[in-house]
Design brief:
The chain has 330 residues and is an alpha/beta fold. It has helices at residues 22-25, 33-45, 61-69, 100-114, 133-145, 159-168, 189-195, 226-230, 239-256, 260-269, 284-291, 300-309, 322-325, and strands spanning 6-9, 12-15, 19-20, 50-52, 78-83, 85-86, 95-96, 119-124, 149-155, 173-177, 199-203. The strands form three sheets. Strands 3-4-5-8-9-10-11 form a seven-stranded parallel beta sheet. Strand 6 (85-86) and strand 7 (95-96) form a beta hairpin. Helix 4 (100-114) packs across helix 5 and helix 5 (133-145) packs parallel to helix 6. The longest helix has 18 residues, at 239-256.
Length: 330
């Protein structure tokens, strides 16, 4: 692999690929803290500088593990975390909060768990539509003024919300699901972010692992894996159809001489210099596979062929369940 190139998020210079932390604490089957720590530290060795987590991952465990893994490299990395989703148990989030009091309390709690004196990039994970975005971002701006947060981000936000937020305080990054089979942000959201100079940070850039080609049957998912019960595109009624689309995508990857996972990430990297995908993994071998995407060169014609092989309009199933979609700002 060549040296990881860098890209900009606000005033931050980061590696072109970051590391997502969703699966470190839970969600994708049984976890292994030592394994996850090894992956995080290996990522830093290979030039990854953007490390992403959230207070809701493992009810804080994700932040604690990340903070400990990077404690001796704090000045060399960019730590991003998110707030706003509340969970009452081990299920998915049941509530979203963005009021001023909660913003401050959530930030203080994340600082303690991470073991740091400031958060480099702090996202609102979901927009609280019951609270004016001006109140939420105003509270975040206070944290910036106090030196507890450096840059602000939004996640799964609508164009109008992005504009209103950016008018209160500059928004550096928009994190949202984006991949070759999840392209809902392209008509309006991505252009709005780009107009305002906001970097795009795609999460689930590998379709929650599906685009790697490693999952040929639903039987491979552990019963504790939320993809088994809470991902409509991987449901029993949609899996076979979407696997057919993946087979076409894999054929294109084979022509290029790369794995489908690398091609999926390369496709995103070629969507613009303001795109910083954050594929998540807790395995060193998967990490190294993902980072090889920076070596894949694609022409405009190549990008067109990829999109023709896996047309977004032919994917069956929503990216989230109806329950989760109610918390997405639209």
């Amino acid at each position: 692999m060549t040296e990881l190139p860098t890209r900009r998020i606000g005033g931050l210079e980061v590696g072109a690929l970051g590391l997502g932390g969703l699966g470190v604490a839970e969600f994708y089957g049984p976890t292994d803290d030592a394994q996850s720590t090894d992956a995080i530290r290996r990522a830093a060795d290979l030039g990854v500088t953007l490390f992403d987590t959230a207070d809701v991952y493992g009810h804080g465990k994700g932040e604690e593990l990340l903070g400990k893994a990077l404690a001796d490299r704090r000045d060399q990395v960019v730590i991003a975390t998110k707030f706003g989703v509340r969970r009452a148990d081990n299920g998915i989030g049941q509530e979203v909060r963005g009021d001023r009091e909660y913003v401050r309390a959530a930030a203080e709690a994340s600082l303690r768990r991470l073991g740091v004196d400031h958060i480099d990039l702090y996202y609102q994970a979901r927009v609280d539509t019951s609270v004016p975005i001006e109140e939420t971002v105003g509270a975040l701006a206070e944290l910036v003024a106090e030196g507890k947060v450096r840059y602000l981000g939004l996640s799964e936000a609508a164009p109008g919300t992005i504009r209103r937020a950016h008018a209160v305080h500059p928004i550096a990054a928009l994190q949202t699901e984006w991949s070759v089979w999840s392209r809902e942000i392209e008509p309006e959201v991505a252009p709005t972010a780009r107009e305002l100079g906001i970097a795009l940070v795609p999460n689930a850039p590998l379709g929650r692992g599906f685009l790697t080609g490693k999952y040929r049957s639903r039987d491979v998912f552990d019963p504790t894996d939320f993809r088994f019960v809470a991902q409509p595109r991987l449901s029993e009624e949609n899996f076979a159809h979407n696997l057919g689309l993946l087979t076409r995508f894999e054929a294109v990857a084979a022509e290029f001489g790369v794995t489908p996972g690398r091609l999926a990430l390369a496709w995103l990297l070629h969507r613009g210099p303001d795109v910083v995908p954050i594929p998540g993994t807790r395995r060193v071998e998967h990490l190294e596979e993902n980072l090889g995407a920076v070596d894949v060169r694609l022409s405009d014609e190549d990008v067109r062929r990829i999109e023709e092989a896996l047309p977004a309009g032919e994917v069956r199933g929503a990216k989230l369940t109806d329950f989760s979609l109610q918390f997405v700002d639209r």
